Amino acid sequence: MRAKITYFVLAAVLVVYFVLVGSRGVLLIEQGTPVTVAFGVSVLVLPFIGAWFLWQTTRFARNADRLARELEAEGGLPVDELVRTPGGRIDRASADAVFAKRRAETEEAPDDWRSWFRLAVAYHDARDTPRARKAMQRAIALHANPRR
Q: Which InterPro entries does this chain map to (predicted)?
């Protein structure tokens, strides 16, 4: 719950920033000189890129959360079997062992979104965020369009 609150606060701050930057771009365009118009248009591009990125990230998080709820309802969420240090950090060897198990599951059922979801969690636990995101994107795509 804390992560959701943080996400929404940061998203709201970004939206305010986009509005402020956009208003500056409009003011530059209203100046009417070729240089200020060029700068104004350039400045207006930034909020659009940021808004697109925020939309994509929000959509990804909502889809991943939906899959997690569905998997939880089925009783298929991965069990936390990781060894942790006294400080609470995940032991690297433990994360690697769980990752190997999840990768084998995914290789056995490459068209099952559930195995890709669990693989994404294993990547995340192993601190490989780019691969975790790609695996979760694969799970979302397979869930949306299951191969028959």
A: TPR-like_helical_dom_sf
